[in-house]
Amino acid sequence: MLRPVVVGLDGSRESLTAADWAAREALRRGLPLRLVHAADAPAAGGSDLPELSAPRHWARRILRDAMDQINERYPRLYLSAEQIARPAAEALVSAGGAGELLVLGSRAFSGFGGFLAGSVALQTVTRVERPVVLVRADQTVEDEHTPDPEGRPSADTPYRAVVVGVDAVRPAEQVLAFAFESAALRSTPLRAVYAWRLPMVRAVAEAGAHQTEEAAARRALTAALAPWREKFPTVEVVEQAEEGHPAQRLLSAAQDAGLLAVGRPIRPARLGAHTGPVAHAVMHHVRCPVAIVPHE
Roughly how many angstroms between the first and final C-alpha of the chain, as a whole number? Predict the structure, then answer.
């Protein structure tokens, strides 16, 4: 049974933009799209008060309007919708866990061009054990593609590159699998970024330590990517082993990207859920869609 691409809807502009991106991703993957709207369960015994029926009517309208919009734009897409009577984060974690990936909308920080992930989005990202893609409110079809020869936005040009953050010392298979597949589906290059840092004590004590560490970092990145190059021979891979902080290097590499994929380590429940410093940074400052991929 095919896992659907799942998108969370709340009626906002950013969630509708996310639904539009999710529809295109579902078509790229040959998967159905499932629209989900969460609403708290009604009180036991129900109620005949009209003011309590209004939220339920609004929820149905959110789903109906989104379905009409997506059906009109993507008539070949198999589409379903569901209202889940549970708190939003719980509903999205459950629905996202049963999907291939979960897509959520996110507002842009004023003046910074990144993401403002609300409490529901953050709770969801840290708990879903499937990839979660955050899509900002002003994302368009043209933003996925390179500009035309005159520098104008276009939906008919090649896709922008996919960027992935790589820990070459402990490569995460789930993250690399998602990134290579995403690049293959788009027939676009994959830019693999590994940020390394030279301990200050070595820089001071050893002549040539920088060149030695840089060469080792490049070899480690090549080795980490080698099996995935074999699995995806059609994907052009650009390796970037650069000294610096991982978040800063990814922010720079993703400036003209169409999608950025980063990992989120799955921690034991007793340690609590978190996104990790790199994922947290790119969630808040990268303009393109960001895929947070959980991994062991």
Answer: 25
The Cβ of residue 159 has, within 10 Å, a number of other Cβ atoms equal to 19
The CA dihedral of 199, 202, 204, 208, to the nearest 10 degrees, is: -120
Locate all alpha helices (DSSP H) within 74-192, ordered by sequence: 88-97, 119-125, 173-186
What is the per-residue pLDDT across 220-230, written as a single tens digit (0 to 9) for each?
Answer: 999 999 999 99
Looking at domain 147-296, its CATH architecture is 3-Layer(aba) Sandwich (3.40)
Number of H helices, E strands in the chain: 9, 11
Residues 80/2, Cβ–Cβ less than 8 Å: no
pLDDT tens digits for 24-51? Answer: 999 999 999 999 998 765 544 444 434 4
**Nearest to residue 283, comparing CAs of 258, 253, 247, 249?**
247
Percentage of residues in the chain with pLDDT exceeding 90?
Answer: 61
Q: pTM for the complete prediction?
A: 0.88
Phi-psi label, residue 22: left if phi above 0, alpha if psi -120 to 50, beta otherwise: alpha
How many residues can be counted in the chain?
296
Count of CA atoms in the C-beta half-sphere (13 A) of 282 = 34
User: pLDDT per residue over 14-30, tens digit each?
Assistant: 899 999 999 999 999 99
Do residues 278 and 247 make contact, with C-beta atoms less than 8 angstroms apart? yes
Tokens read off for 71: 């059906």
* Domain over 1-139 is classified CATH 3.40.50.620: yes
